[in-house]
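Tutorial handout. Part one gives the primary structure; part two gives the three-dimensional structure as C-alpha cells.
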Amino acid sequence: MYEDIDFSPDGKYIMLTTVSRPFSYIVPYYRFPSTTAIYDLNGNLVETIVETPLLEELPKGFMATQKGKRRISWRGDKPSTIYWVEALDEGDPEVEVEYRDVLYQQDAPFKEEPRYLLKVKNRYAGMYWGNDNTAIALDRWWNNRNTKSYFLILQILTKILRLSSIETTRINTTIREALLRKETNTDVLFLPCETIGLT
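Part two.
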C-alpha cells in the first residue's frame, strides 16, 4: 500500500513510501512496517533509503520516537537532495543527552555518505528552506512547552563573511565566533534565532 508519493523539486526522481505486513491492531497505520525508496521517472529503483519495522513498542513519553531515519523529505531549495532526522537519545525522552536529534542530507544519486547538517537540543519539529543561503530549523519539547528556532547560513555565505571586513555589530560578532567553532565536516552553520536578533 502506498503511504506517500513525492517528486523531487527538479522532477527527476520520485520518493515512494509503502506500508507492508505485518499490520497491527494496537498501533496506528503510520507505525506499521514501511519502506521509503527513490525511483527514476521510468520506474527503476535508484536507492532504498530506509526500511522501518513494525513499531508496536516505543519508550514512554510524548517526545518518544523511533530509532533510525525518520521524516525523510526533499530539500526545497535543491534539485534532488534528501534530508532526514535521527534520534541521538535512542528515541527515549528519559535519556539525558545534550542534543536530541541530528539531521543529515544526501544528494542524488544517493550513493555517497550522508553529510551532517545540524543537531538540535529538543525533538526536531520542521525546516523552512529559503534559498541557497538561508533556512530556518525548528525543534520542540512537549514536557516544558519549549521551542527553539535555528537560523541556517550556508557555506556560500560563510565564505563571503570570511573574506569581508566584519563590522563590530552584535550579529556579525556572533556569526564570526560561530564560524570559528563550526565543525569542519558540515557545509552549514546553525545559530539560534534569538542569538542573532531575529526574535
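Part three, for discussion. The CA atoms of residues 9 and 79 lie 5 Å apart. The longest strand covers residues 146-154.
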